[in-house]
Design a protein that fits this description.
The chain is mostly helical. It has helices at about 20-30, 35-55, 90-95, 115-120, 125-135, 145-150, and strands spanning about 60, 75-80, 135-140. The longest helix is centred in the first third of the chain and has 19 residues, at about 35-55. About 15% of the residues are buried.
């Protein structure tokens, strides 16, 4: 259940996730030549998004520890539920209705059907993991279109 967006999925068996066709491999090879440029663009756009969101009282923006780096494959924020009167899913649905592409990209692994059924995990077993993942929202594209859609001048 949840909004019609990425992230609302289940793992019912263990296996491999191999989604690389020959076409994808060809595209990947050409993109690898631009890897540094693309990573720099994502970092710059993430910095821009953080500047827009840093003072929003119900949002925790990403923090990068000193001496660390991040390529921002996803730009993920955490909500502060004590500052909101709606659920994370309602925030996601509202953003999607506004045309802002967001999703829930990470779920507590121990709550997937496979791990619940085979290992007996249940909600509450890993409370910190559950808290963090239940408060996160991600933006999967932190590329060129990021600035135009999130721009205050849009």
């Amino acid at each position: 259940s949840g909004p019609k967006t990425s992230g609302y999925y289940d793992v019912v068996s263990i296996g491999y996730n191999c989604h690389l066709s020959n076409l994808n491999i060809g595209l990947l090879r050409s993109q690898l030549k631009r890897l540094d440029e693309l990573n720099d663009m994502r970092r710059s756009n993430a910095k821009y998004l953080t500047s827009l969101l840093k003072d929003v009282p119900f949002v925790e923006t990403p923090e990068i520890g000193q001496g660390n780096d991040h390529i921002f494959h996803l730009y993920t924020i955490k909500l502060r539920p004590d500052s909101l009167n709606i659920s994370r899913d309602e925030v996601v649905e509202t953003l999607i209705k506004e045309g802002i592409g967001v999703g829930v990209y990470y779920k507590p692994v121990h709550l997937f059907s496979y791990f619940r059924e085979h290992y007996g995990y249940k909600a509450g077993d890993l409370p910190i993991t559950e808290d963090v993942t239940n408060r996160q929202i991600g933006r999967g594209r932190v590329g060129k279109e990021c600035r135009s859609r999130w721009s205050p001048y849009h």
